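Tutorial, part two.
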Amino acid sequence: MSYKTFLGLIITLYSACNTIKSTQESSYRLVAPIVFNEEMQDPEVQLIDIRTPKEFKGGHLEGSININYYDDDFLDQMAILDKEKPVFVYCHIGGRSRRASQKLQTLGFVNLVDLKGGITAWKAEGLTLVQ
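Running the prediction step on this input gives:
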């Protein structure tokens, strides 16, 4: 094998590895309620309310699933979701959803979107909730 062929092979393998790595890297975005509302309309979105069941019953985003951040099996419940599809998370003011997103990144979720200011900011924008 010539030096040029060997060098070409190394460059090709390096490029392929970088492409694979970049497609598997996790992304996390903290977005304002208006952007969150627009983007959550995508049918691929998995919309997760991580507040307690009591908070959820008090009003939540339409189409959201309640997975309580404080449940002992929270990560097990989240692991059932499709890691390749976008996961939109929200809580009351944003603290729990940020911590949850960090945990989900370690589980291999690749597209996480967090509602900035939580449901409090959502309501302040005049956006609707369902009971």
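The helical segments are 3-24, 33-39, 53-57, 74-79, 95-106, 118-124. In part three we will examine how such features are distributed along the chain.
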